[in-house]
Specification:
This protein is mostly beta strands. It has two helices and 14 strands. Helices cover 10% and strands 36% of the residues. The C terminus is likely disordered.
Length: 203
């Protein structure tokens, strides 16, 4: 048994482990590996579940005369609020309210990543971006830009320029949508535009 049970937390959790099996020893891991009798033994000291962004504790109980227990698991996940620093060092700007496909939040990159860039170059730059050890970045859609503008720029969070930012959303065969972070208007530009007013969104 894990106490507190798995869930979402705003700070790291001090977790105690227990079993109802008499004279049992508990072995656990926090690195994702399955526990064995060679893993760290639980001695009664609370296990710190660091939630940046999550920790999973896997545990087994072993006792004389009993079969080894099945692996019990509990995951402790960081809860973010709008404007919080995300795991990659940027700012969280969207929360869909639940986890699916391994994710729940969207984070703006820490700082504008480019100016004077065409839309295809912006897409390629994001795809190859690695920040603070995190990859998987992408150029946001126009709707995601809208959330970034409303939840960060309008709230006075981040260091966004009052300029146009490219989106990945297509306007037509030769144009992409963009959002102006100065007045909030949605506009579009040629894929071939090479203008200092178009940049990559960050914070």
């Amino acid at each position: 048994t894990f106490n507190p049970p798995a869930g979402t937390f705003t700070a790291s959790a001090a977790v105690t482990l227990s079993t109802t099996t008499p004279n049992a020893k508990i072995y656990f891991t926090t690195n994702g590996d399955p526990p064995t009798k060679a893993s760290q033994e639980y001695t009664g000291t609370a296990v710190t579940a660091t939630i940046t962004p999550s920790t999973t504790i896997n545990a087994i109980a072993v006792a004389p005369g009993f079969a080894q227990s099945a692996v019990a698991s509990a995951t402790y996940v960081k809860q973010y609020f709008m404007g919080d620093a995300g795991p990659a060092g940027g700012l969280v700007f969207y929360d869909k309210g639940y986890y699916s496909n391994g994710s729940r939040y969207l984070e703006a990159a820490p700082g504008d990543q480019a100016t004077n860039i065409q839309a295809p170059g912006a897409t390629a730059l994001c795809t190859g971006l690695v920040l603070n050890g995190y990859s998987g970045w992408y150029l946001p859609s126009v709707d995601e830009l809208n959330q970034m503008y409303l939840n960060l720029k309008v709230a006075g969070l981040g260091s966004f320029a009052s300029t146009n930012y490219w989106s990945s959303s297509q306007y037509d065969w030769n144009h992409a949508w963009a959002r102006n972070f100065g007045d909030g208007t949605v506009t579009h530009g040629y894929y071939s535009d090479y203008d200092s007013t178009f940049g990559l969104p960050g914070n």
